[in-house]
């Protein structure tokens, strides 16, 4: 009988609370509203009921260091640093696939580490990490998480069916935590674990995770010795296939079908059970009759189970190359970067980091002024070496602006034509601005839609490329939005893009005037006004410098001269049918 979802989640959290080596819990497809309740549940079992939520845009300074004013003003360890003698804290990650770069580095640093060091702002701390991490992730987004980060979460539970608050922890679980002694693992149990997780599977920690979960389950049950039944229960918790199911696969109808040995009945897989045709080489050989079907020997765990714990084995990679490294960028200006703050560094001018400056100077106030804390409050004693400036994440040095005319897709697959430009944006880690023209199911079909993404891997980009076709073509408004986007990035933006690629995919037949897009009302008579407005906006694009423009034409058709006129107006290269003209 399958273990209920709520029971699996409770057991996973209890195992994480019991064994510090299992302090990473990953819940697939959990309802977001339940995460905080789960954090309180685990925190109450650990004795620290106040979890720390690590947001997707976490900043390193806020997580590693804090500010204290009692008994004296100074710096203190942040929430990710375990306080000596205090119960372990629970860290909640609302979406592991969208966790910031600094958050991913923190998880890699602390999860499954024996010791951690912090040297920052005059603070020197060494501790043994005991913080428990509970993260959620959609199973479909497993390809967006680096595999070495996923490997740090040994407890994997499919929580898609969880819809209510968990029951309180059992009393014997609390007694097991109070004892603090883990069950032993005999050699025969180790052999059972190795039989379940054979060589050849990806992830070096999977056999250790299964053994530790089985040991934790035996301890929670009040026993001092782990058995094979505990390993079976651990596998059921993770939804690993049993040894007798390893030789079975899933057919198209969802029923299990037995895998055959290489020397078994080869005709079973043919349509209608027909016999294989004789081989011309078989004349001089004796061909034996097919023997009975035999299942394959127990093999490695199959990651293809839709509810299995390791969806990353079959997921397509959807993350940036080297995603735990900051991208290399180039700047066309001597002005400092104005991206999101990711730390601070010594400096005296420019982008001053007020909080970091105060934190750096606070521990030195008593040395600079002996009566600083006894006298009435007065200003801090600052000297030039105290000043610090922000260290910011640089904006992408490349930009891809896509103008997608959905109404030209009828009878044409534009993915092959767009592939080289999408590849350029992916390998260069370029920012992406997508302008959609003529899409269905929009708020106002007379206007183009626009959004900006930090990279090509944003799910909105894929949805935009597959959007259904609408009725109207506000091409002039789409080009107007492209002009506005490029002006902001090239002239008004604080960090101008070095390489800007503008790709316009259209057949040139704009049937919505710019005036109608502005007012939201379609006039009684349009004529060629929509095309003329689109050409006027194209001429505005031709006046911009430092951009490379391409117009993709769907191919020969009546009215093909409209696309040629549009490409000439904006000074772009015309590409038709996948070939450059």
From TrEMBL:
Compositional bias segments (type: Basic and acidic residues): 256-274
Compositionally biased residues, Low complexity: 330-346
Domain of life, source organism: Bacteria
Biased composition range(s): Pro residues: 292-309
Region (Disordered): 235-346
Cross-referenced InterPro entries: P-loop_NTPase (IPR027417)
SUPFAM superfamilies: P-loop containing nucleoside triphosphate hydrolases (SSF52540)
PANTHER family: MAGNESIUM-CHELATASE SUBUNIT CHLD, CHLOROPLASTIC (PTHR43473)
UniProt protein name: Magnesium chelatase
Taxon lineage: Bacteria, Bacillati, Actinomycetota, Actinomycetes, Streptosporangiales
